[in-house]
Here is the input.
Amino acid sequence: MFFGEASSSAMYIDVILAAIIFLILFVSVALHRRTKQKMDDLERKVASLEQQQMETLGSLDKKLNSVKQMLLEKTNPLTSKLNELAIKANAMNEKSEAIRRELEENVTPLKASVDDTAAKFSSSHDAIRKIVQESRNELEKMAKDLNGFAEEIQKMKDFIREGTIDLEL
Amino acid sequence: MNENIATILFADLMNSTELAKNLTLLEYDDMLVDFQNTMFEVVSHHIDYFGYQGDGVDSEWSISGDELRVFLYSENVGYDILNALLIATKIKLAWLSSAFNQKVLNEGRLVSRIGVGINCGKVIKDVRPWRVKIGKAQPNIEGYAINLTKRIESASREGSVYQIMVGASLYKRCQQNKHINVAFSHPRSLVFKGLGQKIPVYEVISFVNFEVLPSMPDSIKEGLLEKVEYTVSDAMPEPWVFIVLLRSYISMMAANSENSLDVKAVELAEQALEVVDYKPVIYNMLGWLYTHGENVRNLEMAFHYFDQCLALEPKNEAALLHRARILEKMGQTDLARHAYQEILFQNRHHAEAQRKVAQYKTAQV
Here is the structure.
């Protein structure tokens, strides 16, 4: 009895377990199939997007090229003009440099001469100023002396006048 | 040891013994302090002002009690005499206007006067050994002339005009020197103690010099004229003060600093005629004022006063000269020529008279 009952119970469990395993397998297969399906959908979508991107990039390249072309067409004359201007500017620069050099060559001795003259004039001016100052000082001293002398003469005149009055009283 | 001709001046307060009796000791001391300060101010300034070196080189002076001694020996005796006369007049004037005497005058009392004696004579200047021993190697001045001058100074109490007495030596030198306008009284023969014979003494009765007031020290000069004017108008009209004051007015008029002074000066001169015994100088001053005073100019009056002077002193050269000039201004050519000739008769070296007489002779030719 006992062994009978026990072997029947084990069988049930195995069945259940087998059922569960089958169920799990079934579910996993189903899930795998659904995942694969979704992955395929995604791959398709990615492919489609890549396709679109390729198209967009192609379109952009075309537009860029056309813009480049247009810009080239438009800037080409300007570039030539700029080149001409640059050439002219260079020429002018060279000319002005030449003139500057020439001027420098001519002006340097002149400047030296002027500097020399200025130095001479400055020293002469200082000398003249010194002489004038000395003369002025001398004149002031002479004027002072003359004033003093005039005062002395006046005093002497007063003294003589008063002395004469003394003797005529 | 040096022998010099020195001009010696002694001055002291008259009646100082009597004053010492009447004043308290403190009052007498106040008077002496004021006297000594005044003498110091006047003499020290005068010596410097008139170019004396002092310190025994060409002059020296000292004050002791109520006595002042001045010795001048610059080797120009005429200059020394003039300076002695100036110092004498200035100390009298400064003392009269001193604080002590102004107080006395304001109280209506008589001020004490200064008597002066001046004389010239040989002196010996020597540094005595005792002076060297005490470390004061100043020369001593010794000689008869000093003793005589001291005696002459004591006679100044008998004077009535300047009370400046001089000896015969100084009198003679002044008579020879035409550059000092000084007049002396007739001589008085006095017998002095210890001299044994009569000594002639002369009193200064007129001394005209423009430098009396201007050469005063500034401390005394300030307000001096007003004090002198007060003295002659209200307080003590001494004859010599009139002469000093009138001479100052004439200086101010000559310098054109005071145009309205002539009226005042004439009034003062007329007042002076009543006070001053020696009138020729006042007549000459009046004549000058009437000749040069803008407000009082009157040549006839001037001529009259110079004539008055000549009536008293016919040889007065100043009056003769002014009279000749006035006659010339009046157009009295002949009289003017005679007047100038008269001057030449007195003094044949008179430059102006010589020139004028020569001009008249040329004009006649």
